[in-house]
Amino acid sequence: MSRRSLCARPGCQGATVAWLAYDYAGQRVWLDDAPSEAGDEWALCSAHAGRFRPPQGWALVDRRVVRPDRFEPPASLVS
Questions:
Q1: Closest Cα partner for 71 from 7, 22, 3?
Q2: Beta-sheet strand order (sheet of 28-32)
Q3: How crowded is residue 33: how many other Cβ atoms within 10 Å of its Cβ?
Q4: Which residue spans within the chain are E strands per DSSP?
Q5: Does residue 73 lie in a domain region?
Q6: Within a domain: 37
Q7: Enclosing domain of residue 30
Q8: Separation between Cα atoms, residue 11 and residue 60, nearest integer Å
Q9: 49 within some domain
Q10: Alpha carbon 13 to chain centroid distance?
Q11: pTM of the entire structure?
């Protein structure tokens, strides 16, 4: 059922937690919890969804129900 279980960012193997969609004409970007029927989204892991910034001048609409406060790297990566 899952269209994509890993983050779409090159080299990332993180599990998908958010879906990113663009409206080029309206200069809007959406973050959603689940993919839409249109099927034109990008899968993002927690780290990439939390750090995502839209292009300059574009609006970001975060429609996720559960939003993490911010990404916390695993302790093994901090030390």
A1: 7
A2: 42-44, 18-23, 28-32, 59-62
A3: 12
A4: 18-23, 28-32, 42-44, 59-62
A5: no
A6: yes
A7: 1-65
A8: 24
A9: yes
A10: 14
A11: 0.70
